[in-house]
Description:
By secondary structure, the chain is mainly α. Helix content is about 80%, strand content about 0%. The chain has helices spanning about 1-25, 35-50, 55-80, 85-105, 120-125, 130-150, 155-165, 165-170, 175-200, 215-230, 235-255, 265-299; strands spanning about 110, 205. It starts with a helix and ends with a helix.
Amino acid sequence: MGLGVSAIGQGLLWATLGIGLFLTFRILDFPDMTVEGTFPMGAATCVAAINRGVDPFWATIMAIGVGMLCGLVTGLLYTKGKIPILLAGILVMTAAYSINLRIMGRANLTLLNKPTLLKADFFKAMPEYFDSVVLGIIVIAIVTVALVYFLQTDLGQAFIATGDNEKMARSLGIKTDNMQIMGLMISNGLIGLGGALVAQNNGYADVNMGIGIIVIALASIIIGEVAFGELTMNQRLVAVTLGSILYRFVLLIVLRLGFNTNDLQLLSAIVLAICMMLPVFQKMFNIKHIIKRGVTSHD
Length: 299
């Protein structure tokens, strides 16, 4: 029971990463490697701020701010500097490593005996692990509702149009560069938020905690799409959160089977690869089924 509740809580807190990457990977249709630098920067900023006496709520807001700043830099390199988006993200991700060391003053920093959002009076009376579940539900509900509202506005529709067909959007008078910069800022702001929440839940921030983060975020998106099929844009945002929770349960099952925690990154990559290849397997299965049915009817 406890492990199941913990998996749900972890899934909800990590879902902000999936939702953030969804904006660039699915709507703008390009991979943003900035997230592997933004996530630890959000964690580092939040933990360092709390250690310096800043209220956890405002420390979390600061993490969102630095995430948006990372997205802004990537966006400017891509749109104004004409650097390919993949390389722009890698450049910012690389620079973020040194900045994170500057922020924390060391490779890792703990929150031992420090206040966090999860230590607020509201959560103290709750059973073990339920604090992360409730906090995750509150954060995801706010983020999802805000994005659903945003995507229905004229600005949000212009953002979606930019991802659908950039040339056509530009012909309609949409400033596509601004839309891409805005998308990267919102996306990385959510990634920074995820870093802050996960760091407070884990009790520390580490300069290397961003390694493989993009795989985890992609897994949330892909698993949600595979599990729930064709959905509307709003439903897909919810599916990303559910996909994040399902992903945590998959990892929990794998660990229960006796695998080492050191294998988590490898297992994450394998799970993501299998999920992404499912349409291919399905297509192969359908072809074989059609051939078999045709041979049977011929006989």
